[in-house]
Amino acid sequence: MSATQPTTATGTTAYPLVHAVNVTKAFHGNEVLKGIDMDVAKGEVVCLLGPSGSGKTTFLRCINQLESIDGGRIWVDGDLMGYAEKNGHLHHLSDKQVAAQRREIGMVFQRWNLFPHMTALENIMEAPVQVAGQSKAKAKERALALLDQVGLKDKPSAYPAQLSGGQQQRVAIARALAMDPKLMLFDEPTSALDPELVGEVLKVMRQLAQDGMTMIVVTHEMSFAREVADRVVFMDGGVVVEQGAPKDVINNPQHERTKSFLRRMR
Ligand code: ADP
């Protein structure tokens, strides 16, 4: 398979921001992704739905190379993840090159994973200063703006332990945004939160979507998927079972597996 994506007749690239083709992944012989094809357009919000164990998290982790894939290809913004083509052959990228690709993708995990010994502001400034080499002054200015964006303008000096779970998740979102990612991946960002804290995190995500961020969100929040997603993708057993507009898939699922999952979600 070629490392390059097709170009249009006029020579301009017509690729989606994320283009995944026949992605497979096994753990110890257990194939958890069985040939996933998925395209996500720039600015699109896609929610991944499906029962626990269906491979949603693994697929997200493959996109940003926290897991290596066994087969298939993933491109993000035209870059083939993990590989480069040289003399017609594909070569694995070096760790440094993989890190550079990963820097363009923001990820927010189920459990907030802030640095506990750093304030909210320091958490957000860390990567821009240490990894991207920004000046502290510039990184601080941006971090303060991001704290404002996630509704935590008054918390720059708070340590994670002094923040609620919802506040910590909002700092985690701000921290991911600080590297100006092309794509944001969310892995059940609200599932570890007390119910009363879910709304404040979803609100920040909703605003991000409205601002045009390309997002792939693994979630069990059906109302969020219905309201914010441009498309929902239902996965089960390592395959995409069906996908489409939320109103079609959630209100009128075609496949028995989707119907039975949605019945259980109600
Ligand atoms: P989902 O996000 O849909 O709940 P996951 O991608 O987390 O599904 O998991 C899919 C399957 O892969 C599960 O059976 C899980 O136990 C297995 N799995 C995920 N990560 C690993 C790993 N690092 N080692 C072994 N098995 C794993």
From TrEMBL:
GO cellular component: plasma membrane
Domain ABC transporter: 18-262
Record region (Disordered): 249-266
Localization per Swiss-Prot or TrEMBL: Cell membrane
This enzyme's EC code(s): 7.4.2.1
GO molecular function: ATP binding; ATP hydrolysis activity; ATPase-coupled polar amino acid-transporter activity
Predominant location category: membrane
SMART domains: AAA
Catalytic activity: a polar amino acid(out) + ATP + H2O = a polar amino acid(in) + ADP + phosphate + H(+)
Record PANTHER family: AMINO ACID IMPORT ATP-BINDING PROTEIN (PTHR43166), GLUTAMATE_ASPARTATE IMPORT ATP-BINDING PROTEIN GLTL (PTHR43166:SF9)
Name of protein: ABC-type polar-amino-acid transporter
Protein's organism: Knoellia koreensis
